[in-house]
């Protein structure tokens, strides 16, 4: 007879085999504080007083004592006869009132096929390599998370205190976001032995080949975590964080007896127990802002976004090449991201397209240093970017003409005296607003105990510990901290990068019972890219100085090269950029010579 044990979930009955039950029971059971160990031991025993069969399950309490817990068994073979009910089963991802229903065959420990649906599958517990060393779990491998992990690696630790570090990210690659624009900006000349290529039935000239090679390759600005961490002791798990269940605020951590300071459940069902948690999940573009924006506008926040935009532009470039129809791109927002995108896309399209940038404010980059703003304005004007300032986008709709998709933007003036406008475009890029991803985690039935501000960022104290949670640090776009003047620090890589240094240090201090340091942000200045050989850089240490054009571009690239995550990667990328710039110089000399020889 098939072995069946049933866990009654709130809404439906799910059948699980003993093997999956093994895992589903790996957490606290009953209200007596006893939990089951994973994998648990169970055996069939006979109750001496009644003579009935029982399943004895080996349970361990939070204080380390253990005992067998007896579950009665049905003496008949009738499936699903209720034999034990009413105790509270606490699963880490939700509170369940579970009722166990078993048949005789359970005791024979027969093997069955788990039949819980994926989302209800019980978690597997992550096995840390060492029993005693502190367990640090870092969520998010961006500027905050990855650099914290590397900082922890670089510090000197007493042997027994050296933490085991686990980095979790949903993506396979770390992304150096400030350089995502370079994926779009072509220009590196790649000599080819042929003068034309045939692509999808169309013939493209050498000029086409020149424009399709990007200024940077994906691997340079988005290296794989596995490669970056290969020479470190940091473990990496690629998975999506689903649920947080901290318990350090309950005061059960920090004592020698505590098991963990909380758990993190990942999408795959992996459950991580930790002693220290670092929250660095970053943020993404907030798209759901006006009717049609979520459906029709493209964000520009991840590597996938950049690659998707690149591919859309290629499609439009092909259409332009074969049919001659000009390409129209509308960019919503003229903060740093909007202006950098506008400059990059306009440079790429040249006279094949029209770029419009729309901003509700009456100026571009209102918070930027004046030198950066003026440099950007000069470049946008020289590339004929149309600025529609003082407008907000009311809606985006899609229309289709005979052979292409078009979008209609309805613009409403922010001030009186201006006319509403309707724009037709091939592509809408959205750069306004962002949403911290910490607040996007799946809600638990109990409210998440973290103090989040209205934007969904965790509020921290000066040492970057989440308020009320001595074992959780938060940094980067996931966190909210005010500077000494009371201003919330901006969600920038510069802030996250500096906070990672402090988070690493403060974890060291906390684990070694030393005083923690208050974080102080040092504004080093602001940089923006404006195309393949243009940028604006305003360093904070020389008042009023702005490096523009190729000098600004080189200064920005060197600054970012220095900030790449590891020495190995820095060297590889440095060599690659040197090679590309050598090829580019040779190509431009070759072009000049050709022009002189041909007299053009
Ligand atoms: C296009 C662009 C250009 C920018 N340019 C600049 C600039 O020039 N200068 C500057 O200072 N700042 C710039 N920024 C801002 C800067 O990149 C961010 O402020 C910075 O990356 C924040 O670091 P972080 O560690 O908080 O988050 P991120 O670097 O975004 O890292 C978060 C990580 O968490 C992972 N993650 C998110 N949710 C989950 C989940 N549920 N499960 C698992 N993993 C998850 C993500 O995959 C990501 O790897 C730019 C941002 C963008 C998008």
TrEMBL record:
GO biological process, one term: aerobic electron transport chain
GO MF annotation list: NAD(P)H dehydrogenase (quinone) activity
GO annotations of cellular component type: chloroplast
Key words, A-Z: FAD, Flavoprotein, NADP, Oxidoreductase
Cofactor(s) the record lists: FAD
EC number: 1.6.5.12
InterPro entries reported for this sequence: FAD/NAD-bd_sf, FAD/NAD-binding_dom, NADH-Q_oxidoreductase
Record's catalysed reaction(s): demethylphylloquinone + NADPH + H(+) = demethylphylloquinol + NADP(+)
Domain FAD/NAD(P)-binding: 135-500
Pfam families given in the database record: Pyr_redox_2
PANTHER family given in the database record: ALTERNATIVE NAD(P)H-UBIQUINONE OXIDOREDUCTASE C1, CHLOROPLASTIC_MITOCHONDRIAL, APOPTOSIS-INDUCING FACTOR 1
Family: Belongs to the NADH dehydrogenase family.
Protein's recorded name: demethylphylloquinone reductase
């Amino acid at each position: 007879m098939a072995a069946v044990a049933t866990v009654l979930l709130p809404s439906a009955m799910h059948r699980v085999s003993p093997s999956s039950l093994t895992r589903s029971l790996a957490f606290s059971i009953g209200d007596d504080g006893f939990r089951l160990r994973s994998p648990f031991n169970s055996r069939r025993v006979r109750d001496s007083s009644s003579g009935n069969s029982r399943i004895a399950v080996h349970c361990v309490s939070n204080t380390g004592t253990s005992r067998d817990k007896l579950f009665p068994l049905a003496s008949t073979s009738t499936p699903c006869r209720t034999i034990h009910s009413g105790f509270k089963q606490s699963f880490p991802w939700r509170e369940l009132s579970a009722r166990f229903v078993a048949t005789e065959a359970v005791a024979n420990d027969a093997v069955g096929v788990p039949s819980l649906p994926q989302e209800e599958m019980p978690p597997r517990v992550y096995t840390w390599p060492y029993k005693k060393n502190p367990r640090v779990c870092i969520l998010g491998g961006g500027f905050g998370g990855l650099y914290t992990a590397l900082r922890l690696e670089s510090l000197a630790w007493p042997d027994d205190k050296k933490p085991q570090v686990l980095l979790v990210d949903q993506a396979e690659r770390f992304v150096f976001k400030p350089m995502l624009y370079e994926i779009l900006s072509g220009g590196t000349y790649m000599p080819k032995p042929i003068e034309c290529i045939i692509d999808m039935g169309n013939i493209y000239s050498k000029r086409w080949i020149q424009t399709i090679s990007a200024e940077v390759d994906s691997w340079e600005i988005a290296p794989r975590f596995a490669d970056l961490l290969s020479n470190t002791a940091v473990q990496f798990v690629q998975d999506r964080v689903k649920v947080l269940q901290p318990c350090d605020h309950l005061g059960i951590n920090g004592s020698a007896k505590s098991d963990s300071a909380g758990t993190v459940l990942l999408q795959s069902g992996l459950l991580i127990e930790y002693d220290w948690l670092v929250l660095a999940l970053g943020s993404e573009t907030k798209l759901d802002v006006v009717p049609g924006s979520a459906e029709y506008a493209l964000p520009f926040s991840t590597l996938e976004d950049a690659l998707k935009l690149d591919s859309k532009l290629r499609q439009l470039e092909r259409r332009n090449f074969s049919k001659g129809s000009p390409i129209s791109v509308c960019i919503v927002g003229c903060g740093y991201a909007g202006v950098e995108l506008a400059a990059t896309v306009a440079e790429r399209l040249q006279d094949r397209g029209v770029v419009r940038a729309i901003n509700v404010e009456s100026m571009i980059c209102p918070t930027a240093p004046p030198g950066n703003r003026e440099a950007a304005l000069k470049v946008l004007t020289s590339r004929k970017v149309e600025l529609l300032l003082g407008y907000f986008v009311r809606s985006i709709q899609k229309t289709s003409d005979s052979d292409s998709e078009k979008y209609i933007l309805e613009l409403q003036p922010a001030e009186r005296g201006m006319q509403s406008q309707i724009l037709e475009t091939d592509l809408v890029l959205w750069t306004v607003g962002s949403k911290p991803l910490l607040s996007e985690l799946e809600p638990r039935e109990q409210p998440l105990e973290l103090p989040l501000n209205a934007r969904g960022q965790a509020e921290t104290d000066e040492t970057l510990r989440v308020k009320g949670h001595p074992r959780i640090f938060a940094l980067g776009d996931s966190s909210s901290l005010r500077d000494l003047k009371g201003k919330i620090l901006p969600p920038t890589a510069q802030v996250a990068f500096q906070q990672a240094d402090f988070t690493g240090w403060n974890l060291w201090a906390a684990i070694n019972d030393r005083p923690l340091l208050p974080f102080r942000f040092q504004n080093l200045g602001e940089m923006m890219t404006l195309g393949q050989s243009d940028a604006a850089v305003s360093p904070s240490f020389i008042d009023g100085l702005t490096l523009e054009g190729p000098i600004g571009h080189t200064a920005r690239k060197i600054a970012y090269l220095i900030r790449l995550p590891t020495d190995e990667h820095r060297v590889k990328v440095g060599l690659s950029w040197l090679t590309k710039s050598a090829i580019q110089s040779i190509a431009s000399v070759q072009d000049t010579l050709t022009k002189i020889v041909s007299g053009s």
